[in-house]
Amino acid sequence: MSSKRVIRPTASLLSTAAKRAQPAKYGRFCEAARHAHTITRQLGLFVRSRPTLRAAHDTFPVVGPRGTRSIFIQIENTPNPDALKFLPNHRVLPEEVQTSFIEYLNPRSTVAPPHPSPLAAQLMNIDGVTSVFYGPDFITVTKSADANWAHIKPEVFSLITEAVTSGQKLVTVSSSKEGVAEGRNATPEEDSLSYNENDSEVVGMIKELLETRIRPAIQEDGGDIEFRGFENGMVLLKLRGACRTCDSSTVTLKNGIEGMLMHYIEEVKGVEQVMDEEEEIAMKEFAKFEEKLRASKGPDAAPTTPGKGSLDTVPG
To answer: Which of 84, 256, 300, 313 has its CA 20 to 30 Å from the CA of residue 249?
Structure first.
């Protein structure tokens, strides 16, 4: 005859011990409650633990009036001290937009086809803001070097919160080609890393690496990358968003992107940054300024270290 030990639940033992110690304090209601607890444990049922309070550093939602959306805005620093990344927990780019980003470099581009944006227009009107960048689910705002985030950040936060909670479209898709023809909107109409049946095998591998291994890291830093071509072993790329004006963009381009592409694809000999016309003009102006500064200090003066746009370049 096999003996089976009946293991009573701990809660039941504790309840019994407590009742024996202080029988006067237990009425019929307490007895019924403890009996139900014991039966629940014996059946293998467990009561869900009480939810804990939020930590002090958690992000709290921004609650609008009744009937509006409840959202929260998260702000992240980027490697570029002049750029901040805002995550509204809300899709930023419309589904019908073919590219992975939209970049506004001047106030006119915010109202020009094919992607005018009322929010970007408001952000560009803030004193000190130089560009607005839309990623799939984030917004990167870049300021001038002499501007102060203490004055800019609250206004940017307020405008983004108002736009998202109101339910208005952040981007309006226009079929007009006028803005593209005049060069006022620097955003490509299609994702440069998307599959193209006319691509060679090498270009296809380059795009795949850029899409799967490099783009996620750059988007994490509040930017994106654009493929401009593959010529004579050189991969032509353009950094966007926070990475476009970052002082460490040369390191990103050469040590990070170039190293990975050359490691996996033997046909790749190097990577070069493509500059747009406006950026080339800015670089020429910087070179003239540096030449004047060197002339005033004498021929032995050390060259000025360029800040923004200090990348190896080829004509765009």
So the answer is: 300
In this predicted structure, what is the pLDDT of residue 24?
Answer: 45
Distance CA 309, CA 235 (A): 18
pTM of the prediction? 0.65
Write out residues in the chain with pLDDT < 50, as ranges. Answer: 2-27, 29-30, 33, 40, 43-68, 179-185, 303-316
Q: What is the largest CA-CA distance in the chain?
A: 107
- Tell me whether residue 192 is in a domain: no
pLDDT of residue 107: 93
- Tokens encoding 56: 């002090």
Query: Domain limits at 234?
Result: 201-292+309-315
Element spanning 224, H or E: strand 223-231
Report which residue type is found at 113.
P
What's the Cα-to-Cα distance from 130 to each of 23, 109, 147, rounded to whole Å? 76, 12, 10
Q: What does the pLDDT read at residue 99? A: 87
Same domain, 35 and 132: no
Q: Identify the residue whose tokens are 């694809």.
A: 265
DSSP code at position 107:
G
What pLDDT is recorded for position 306?
A: 41
For 60, list phi and psi in degrees, rounded to 5.
Answer: -100, 150
Three-state SS for 133-175 is EECCCCEEEEECCCCCHHHHHHHHHHHHHHHHHHCCCCCCCCC
H-helix or E-strand spanning residue 272 = strand 270-275
Secondary structure class of 56 (helix, strand, coil): coil
Distance CA 133, CA 149 (A): 17
78 lies in the same domain as 173: yes
Q: Residue 154: which CATH number?
A: 3.30.1370.70
pLDDT of residue 34: 54
Residue 31, pLDDT score: 54
Residue-level pLDDT at 278: 65
Neighbour-count burial of 314, counting CB atoms closer than 10 A to its CB (0-12 exposed, 13-18 middle, 19+ buried): middle
